[in-house]
Every structure is written in C-alpha cells, then in structure tokens.
Amino acid sequence: MSKLTTLDSDSQLRAQLPVQTLDLGNDLTQTLQEIVRDWTRQGTLDRLWARDAQVWTGGDEANWLDWLNAVARGREALPALSELGADLRRGGFTAALLIGMGGSSLGPEVLAKTLGAESGMLPLYIIDSTDPAQIASCEAALDIERTLFIVASKSGSTLEPDILLQYFLAKAKAALGPAAGRQFIAITDPGSKLEAFARNNSFRHIATGVPGIGGRYSVLSNFGLVPAVVMGINIEHLLTSADLMVRNCSAVTPPAQNLGVILGAVMGAAARAGRDKLTLLASPALLPFGAWVEQLVAESTGKHGLGIVPVDAEGIGMPAVYGSDRLFIDLRLEDDSDQARDQAIAALANAGNPMVTISIAAREQLAQEFFHWEMATAVAGAVLGIHPFDQPDVEAAKIQTKSLMAAYERDQILPQSPAVLVDGNLALFGAVVGNGASLESTLTKLFGQIRQGDYFVLLAYMEMNDPHMALLQSMRTLVRDKYKVATCLGFGPRFLHSTGQLYKGGPNSGVFLQITCDDDMDLPIPGRSYSFGTVKAAQALGDFQVLAERGRRALRVHVKGELETGLSVLHRTFIAALSRVDLTL
C-alpha cells in the first residue's frame, strides 16, 4: 500500500488536498511504478503542460488543452462574475433552469446536488432530456415569470438545447411579452449561433466559453462557474480550492507525488491489465459526482476499440458478485461515513480487488476533484495511447437521428422496421429475437450472450424519476449478481452525450437492453413540424441502429400503452429469464 498526502492549506476553507491511498496488489503496483519511472525519465509531465500532442497520438490534442489554465482564467474573471451575481440578486428571480446536455449540464448538476444554493439565491433545476414527461415535470416545478433560464451549449447548435430553448422562450414570451429575453442567460463559445440568437433576443447576459476546452472538461470554466454564481456559491473559495489541485498536478510536482498522474496511471495500467471496469464508490453526499466522472472517462477513453468503462451508482455488493475486471475508486467525504458501507468496501479490498481511496474533508473540495479527474483522464489516455479530447463516435447517432428527422419532416412518420415479436404490450426489435419466441425466451437468449469481462447496459428512453430508477437499478443488480459482470444504467437521450461514445466506439464487450415507450402526453416544439416525443423516438431509433451497425449485442423492448404496467411486466419477465439461464462464464 502506498499513501499520497499533502500538507494542510487554508483551514478556514478546509481546502487541503485529498488523501489518496492505493491498495493495488503486487502486479498493478509494479506496473504503476514502471509508468511513473517512465514519465519521470522522459519528462512526460513537462511535455503535457507544454502541450506536446506526442504525449498522446500526435493529433490535434494541443488544441484542446485550455482546461489546464481554466482556474487561472476563472480567477481573472472574478470581478465580472461578482457583478453578475449582484445583478441576479436584484432580478427578483425565485429559481433557475439550466438547459444543456453532456458537459454543459453534468458539472452544474454536481454543484447543484452537492453544494446547492446559498440562502437567498436561486435553486438550480436542470433539463437535459427530450422526454415530454420529464420536460412537463420540470416546467410544473417552476414559476415561469420568475425563473432565470440558462442556456448552455458550446457549439450553440446542439439539437436538444436548441429546441428546449425555443420551448421555454415561447413560454416566457407568453407570460412576459417582449421583455422575456431578460430572463435568459447564454453560455456558449464566441461566434456561435446561440450567441447571435442571444444578442438578437436581448438576453440578460452572454458568458463566453473557451474554444480550446472541450465540453466534458469545461466545469471549471464559465459552463460551471456561471451556474455556481447563480446559486450563490462562493466562486473565489471554489477556485482557491481548485488551484491547490492545479498546482499539485503541475509539472513542478514530480509524477510520484502528483495526484492526477498517479490516479491516471492507475486507471491506464488497470485497463491494460484487463481491469477496465472503473467502479466508483462514492459517499452518499458525493453520489452525484459519479455521473460527471462517467462522461469524462467514457467519452475520453472509449474509442478505436479501446476504453475504460466507468460504472456509476451500481451499489456495493459482496465480493463474490464481482469478476476480476474491476478497479474500485472509493471517493469519500470524511464526515459522511457509514459503518456498513465501510465494512463492505473493506471486504472488497480484503478479497484482493485493487482499491484507490480518495478522501476529502469538505464538499467544496469537489472543485479540486474536477481538476484531479480531468488530469487523471488525460494521463490515462496517454497510457492507453489514445486521443482523450475527441469523440468520433458521438456524431454517428446524431447523424442517424438527423436522417430520421428529415424523413419525418418529409413523410410525417419515422421510418423503422416492424417489430420482430409482439408479446402483450411489449414489442421487441433486434437480431437477438428469434422467430416464434416470447419476451422471456428472448431475454434468456440475450443473457446467454454475456461472457466473462463483458458489461451489461440498460438504456432507458423515459422520464428519469425515482420509481423508474428503482426498478431499473433492481434489474441491473440482478444481472450483476448472477453473471459477476459490471452493469450500467443510462437515461436517453442524456447518455448519448456521455457514455454513448464508449458504447459505440469502445471495446465490443457491452450487452445492451434498450427500453423505449409510448408517451402518455407530448409537447409541441415552437416553429417545428415535430414534437419532443418525435425527437426522443428518433434519437432512440438512431441510437439502436448505430449499436446494431457496430455489431453490438443489443435488444430493444418498446412498451406500448401504459408505461408502469409494461415496466412491471418487463421486470417480472426479466427475473424469470435470469432464472432459466445456464451459466457459461
């Protein structure tokens, strides 16, 4: 076991660096030491900070490294951010809604769920879905006349933020008339379509992004800082804390003491050794951080048949339910300890599973963890020999969706193949469905394709709410416990901007069950000939088609009629099918 720690810093902010402890076993420890020696001998860390693309693939990586100095830029912008906060306090708002996808929404979501709004400032709601029920639920929680809308999109042309902006702007105009633009803030890169739209519609504020910072690395830029200001979070304290991690991860700190280099080297070494299922175990108060890590790791490393599979919010099981392909990361908050949780994690380590423990003293240190993981992911990309800043396969599903939407606008129907099988109110699609089969036998066939070292994914195109989450969590746990494979859960279209890159471009070790549904209600999109329900359906179809084209083992189950009834049937049949499968692992 090796332990990395640093001296306490500003005690008032509790801004000490985290304690990072490694318990890896002999083989992985030896590989880690070799990587650290190589980085030290070859000056790789100096080259990374000098923006040498040869650290990775020699491509355009140097164009995407402005996240390295995002904290310094943020400190320079403190006066402007302070002025924005003062303006919002005078605005009479009662809540804020952030409209965004992927990196534009996941970072702010972590801040909203872990730190929350300060007294007298605005609670932050987030909408990153085209599901009509989810949009309606979000709208119902807001007083449109007193809501501040934040539209976040780097490119300014991403489909979901674009149509959600049109929807909520129309609502604001109906309530407020021509002055509705004063309820809106845009966060976007300079020269984007959204920037022009914001100016033309007299938005209250336009915050510019940095073109050299990719979306998933953008949380310490305006894409995270502006929502933090809206919530009244002390930005100066946040950036001061983050700066400690920046300094630790800089070229001044040798690789052997560099928290980001060590974590990234462990991630890369573990993946090379077959432990490519990075399983995040977070304290209850830090659980929202996992969704941000999930995107960062999956989208950065999952390409060209390689990748690290991040496993978020799976729950902690007994050692016997895990295979030999796991690397566990225990992110813990010191004052959020739980004896049962600690005992379960200790059991995993005692069983010989490699474990990294990252202990932080206060939630505000998540600002440090953002940079810590950004550096670690960049280092892991270098260890694996991949470009960690592009996302070549994300576009595939977007292109397919665009084609389907064009066909809908022409014919007023989405083109799709008929169901291979209809069992009650459940329709089944995909090559895994056999002629004359039932839902149970088809699920049995899908489960029969799971092999050692695979991972199983539920892709749910429905409202992300507690009842749906609980049922789907139960299903993934059943698979994990029977097959000893990693399991993931994604709600569409949200995951398309996150893990979608890995699922399509990473190793062909995923087994996918996509669940779609009829919408009980739908919402029109102002100025468009299609609805949100149509967009969601096209995104699901495009997603499934690309999975099939990539040779992924995938089944689609569509719930016709009442969703809760169909999900209950699916859940019962899921259990029955698992009981029939003969284990071949």
From TrEMBL:
SUPFAM superfamilies: SIS domain
Catalytic reactions of this protein: alpha-D-glucose 6-phosphate = beta-D-fructose 6-phosphate
Keywords for the protein's UniProt record, in alphabetical order: Gluconeogenesis, Glycolysis, Isomerase
EC code: 5.3.1.9
One record GO biological process: glucose 6-phosphate metabolic process
Claim: rRNA-binding is one of the keywords in the record: no
GO cellular component, one term: cytosol
Pathway as given in its UniProt record: Carbohydrate degradation; glycolysis; D-glyceraldehyde 3-phosphate and glycerone phosphate from D-glucose: step 2/4
The keyword Flavoprotein belongs to this UniProt entry's keyword annotation: no
GO molecular function term, any single one: glucose-6-phosphate isomerase activity
PROSITE patterns linked to this entry: P_GLUCOSE_ISOMERASE_3 (PS51463)
Family recorded in the similarity comment: Belongs to the GPI family.
Protein's name in the database: Glucose-6-phosphate isomerase
